[in-house]
Description:
Blueprint: H1 12-28, H2 32-43, H3 50-64, H4 70-80, H5 84-91, H6 97-115
Amino acid sequence: MLPEHQQYSYDAVTLYVELSAALNELQARGLGQSVKWAAEQLVGLPEHAYEPGAKLALEARVRSIEPEHPKLTHGRAYFEHKEYNRAAHVLAAINTPVAVFLRCYALYLAGQKRQE
């Protein structure tokens, strides 16, 4: 717990925008449990935050959208179907932060799957 002088104060709309952005990032990286947790936090916010928060979150997302490399989409499809070695192979050719993370995570999960 933070000392009293370091307490953070966020309004519900700001929290809605931040959680929405986090959901998008977590989904892009295939982190299902983290997506579930963030979604639960989002649902727990007061109702009055929904409409203005959703509008601001959409505006922020539209500003940050970049075209996705087709190989990233291809690798993500393999990842979501638990074909981790294939996903890592496809993603090896891309050097974006999301692709690098997914490739490393896919290799880790492939190793875990082999141990079972």
